[in-house]
Design goal:
alpha/beta; Rossmann fold; six-stranded mixed beta sheet; five-stranded parallel beta sheet; binds 6-O-phosphono-beta-D-fructofuranose
Length: 491
């Protein structure tokens, strides 16, 4: 492969061939180690009739999650005006649920509910997506503050209960299974803290309505999450209730509208030139042809700082598979290990290894062109760093003493949005969901199950019994660890 700097400087029309976009976005793939002719060929070869059929199956509500015999209809959650053809029953069910949870969100956002603080208790897809939406789109006009509670943290519990007023605090318990240990353990503790009338200002978001009722939620406080929505695809549903309470129901609807636009693009004839497919072909190349095992998502739009956390689950829980839908070993590598965060923060830590380390880790750098706050100079600094990093990663620095040289040849795709409004964020996140779906199709794997996380939870339960009741350890090799822990168990 030619050095990236040669490709950038000498390949005719490279920028034109390797940049795609629309009125409000630009994806620049020219800093990937591939000729534009080869990339065009890869894109053509991936535009198969089988992909057409897979997309049709997805939107038709056919079974696409074969190990759980389910469709995947997260698109129905954002179908507002029927632009995209989807099963009517799913759209209707989602629409009914949306009206209910947005009414609650409005009462919280406006202050009508008389609530000051909301405890959002959930983990994984019941936390990461809504947390990102709230962080990215919070305009500071909500009557409530949301506290995101995911992993078990006793000190956090003490701090919150020591500082908040239970009478003006509400609780949202988001759990599709209503069986997740971290979520239910903390929900029970906060329920007791909220007091006897806790249920008057608490809601459950789940597909397991009976379990929520057994916990003590009234029927009208149980928000529906259909079984055909995967956890990591559920931010568009009532799992987003707390986020809608932060940003306001109308902006949440704008978020949904943006996602619906991405659905129309992906379901329509323009798919091949859309963000989802272009990124999927690029990631497929980096992972399977260039053999690079990781992918960094680095945002130079500070409000997208939590995007990498959300994508880490969306990408690795969807694509971290090693057998095909048919049960055979996969024919290629699959999920990259996804990392990332905020751009300039990472330039004071991770970027040293990205520039001078022995391994190459490709990046997706994301920014917004328009400044929508009162510090345009700060915004320009962010963009200058994005452009500077993309250039130096690719070109390196050949001169100077050995310790100061940079090898370059480090791939970086650059995605620019015109601005970060709710509809743009919705479009971006839904496009990334479709990118993941396309990659799962390329690799013939199931994007919608996650059996790999279940065994660890099962064995953890047996270790809990060993720690709590002295039962035999499920793994003798853990003896020294258990002995050390037991020395401090009763301090
Ligand atoms: O990590 C496994 C997983 O099931 C995720 O897919 C899901 O988002 C998370 O745990 C939380 O699950 P639940 O919403 O059922 O509590």
């Amino acid at each position: 492969m030619k050095p990236l700097s040669d490709l950038l400087d000498h390949e005719p029309d490279r920028q034109r061939e390797m940049c795609r976009g629309g009125n409000d976005w630009l994806l620049d793939l020219s800093r990937l180690p591939i000729s534009s002719a080869h990339f065009a060929d890869l894109t053509r070869r991936r535009s198969t009739i089988e992909l057409e059929r897979a997309v049709r199956d997805l939107f038709a509500g056919n079974v696409v999650n074969h190990s759980e015999d389910r469709p995947a209809l997260h698109m129905a959650l954002r179908s507002l005006d029927g632009d995209v053809e989807l099963p009517g029953a799913a759209v209707e069910r989602a629409s009914t649920a949306r009206r209910r949870f947005l009414a609650v969100a409005d009462s919280l956002h406006s202050g009508a509910a008389g609530v000051r603080d909301v405890l959002h208790i959930g983990i994984g897809g019941s936390d990461l997506g809504p947390r990102l939406i709230a962080d990215a789109l919070d305009s500071g006009d909500s009557a409530v503050r949301v506290h995101w509670i995911s992993t078990l943290d006793g000190r956090r519990f003490d701090r919150l209960t020591g500082r908040l007023n239970p009478m003006t605090t509400a609780m949202v318990v988001a759990s599709k299974s209503f069986g997740t240990e971290e979520t239910l353990t903390q929900a029970r503790a906060f329920r007791d803290w909220l007091g006897p009338d806790w249920s008057k200002r608490s809601w459950a978001v789940t597909s397991q309505h009976r379990r929520a009722a057994e916990f003590g939620f009234s029927d009208q406080a149980i928000m529906d999450l259909p079984a055909w929505v995967g956890g990591r695809f559920s931010l568009w549903s009532a799992v987003g209730l707390s986020a809608a309470a932060v940003i306001g129901p109308s902006r949440f609807v704008n978020l949904l509208a943006g996602a619906a636009r991405a659905d129309a693009e992906f379901a329509g004839p323009g798919r091949q030139q859309g963000l989802a497919i272009m990124l999927a072909v690029a990631i497929d190349f980096l992972r399977c042809q260039a053999g690079l095992p990781a992918l960094g998502v680095v945002s130079y739009e500070p409000r997208l700082g939590l995007l990498a956390d959300h994508l880490q689950q969306l990408v690795t829980e969807s694509l971290g598979k090693s057998v095909t839908v048919a049960g055979d070993p996969v024919a290629s590598q699959t999920s990259p290990l996804l990392f990332g965060g905020r751009g300039t923060d990472l330039q004071h830590s991770l970027f040293q290894a990205l520039h001078q380390g022995t391994d190459t880790h490709p990046l997706l750098l994301i920014g917004t062109a328009r400044c929508d706050h009162g510090r345009p100079d700060w915004h320009r600094v962010q963009l200058a760093h994005l452009l500077g990093q993309a250039s130096v990663l690719a070109r390196g620095r050949p001169d100077g003493p050995p310790h100061a040289r940079l090898p370059g040849q480090r791939p970086a795709a650059v995605l620019l949005l015109d601005k970060l409004e709710p509809d743009r964020l919705g479009w971006l996140l839904a496009s990334l969901e479709h990118c993941v779906f396309a990659l799962a199709h390329f690799w013939q794997i199931n994007a919608f199950d996650q059996w790999g996380v279940e065994e660890g939870k099962r064995v953890a339960g047996r270790f809990a019994a060993s720690l709590d009741r002295g039962e035999t350890s499920p793994d003798p090799s853990a003896g020294p660890l258990l002995d050390f822990i037991r020395r401090f168990q009763h301090d």
